[in-house]
Amino acid sequence: MELKTRQVNDVTIIEIEGRFDTHTAPPVHELLQEAILEKPAYVVVNLEAVHFIDSTALSTLVAGMKRSRQVDGDLRLCNLQQPVRMIFELTRLDRAFEIFSSEVEAIEAFQEANT
Amino acid sequence: MMDGESPNVTFQLNIPASFRFLNVVSSSITAVLEQVNGLSERDNLTYNIILAVHEVCANIVEHAYGGEDGRIQINVALNETENRLIVDLLDTGRSFDLSEMAQPDLDMAPIRGYGLFLVHELMDKVTYKPGDKKNHWRLTKKL
């Protein structure tokens, strides 16, 4: 799994590539912890290159989303591949997360909320 | 049906009970399903099966063996005559009572508890038989 992070204005973008599962989730967890310490805790996780996600990865994202909302931020998702999206729908996490079809839309939604 | 082959295929994997080898299981099952002609919604079906098997393996690593050394034996039986895939998973770790596993309250977006929920949702039939020597999971999916 490859992990990249970058900053666009106030928003931390985390790009994950490959298999996001119980074996590869710990570094994502650490990165989310660091990103949420920043204020504002605005995080976008780009899942465009994730072809496999498991329950531990879901747990990692849910924990990050809940922590960020506790400090008036949010963790948003974008670019889910179809099989991955189906898992979010099956677990009803498509209702818990704000999910966008592109990274730009996810970033803009943070900026619109601040204007 | 696979080209020029018997419609029924079985294979076995025997892996160390470690998270880092679970991608081998996914790759093997994906490779078998790639050879089956005429699968509807191939990508989703393949994902659903490999995710369910992965979740059972992860459960065995984390709970049956609790981080200790162990093995997972995986028997995959593809029966194209009956359009069915059966995956048996055997471990020699601690057993548990499947009926006592709490269902996650999905409306609350819980942080944990998705693993076995997904296994049951993604497969047509899931059985678990705890044993003194071996615990036996059987996952069945109609293709």
Please explain how this structure is put together.
The complex is a heterodimer of chains A (115) and B (143). Chain A is an alpha/beta fold and 115 residues long. Chain A has five helices and five strands. A five-stranded mixed β-sheet of chain A has the order 1-2-3-4-5, with helices on both faces. In chain A, helix 1 (25-37) packs parallel to helix 2 (55-70). With 143 residues, chain B is an alpha+beta fold. Chain B has a single domain (8-142), classed as Histidine kinase-like ATPase, C-terminal domain (Heat Shock Protein 90, 2-Layer Sandwich), CATH 3.30.565. Chain B contains three helices and five strands; from the N terminus they run βααββαββ. Chain B has helices at 22-34, 42-64, 115-122, and strands at 8-16, 71-79, 84-91, 125-129, 135-142. A five-stranded antiparallel β-sheet of chain B has the order 1-2-3-5-4, covered by helices on one side. In chain B, helix 1 (22-34) runs antiparallel to helix 2 (42-64). Classes of the chains: A alpha/beta (115), B alpha+beta (143). The A-B interface holds A 19, 21-23, 52, 54-56, 58-59, 62-63, 65-66, 82-83, 86-87, 90-93, 95-96 and B 19-20, 22-23, 26, 43-44, 47-48, 50-51, 54-55, 58, 62, 106-107, 109-112, 114-115, 117-118, 121-122.
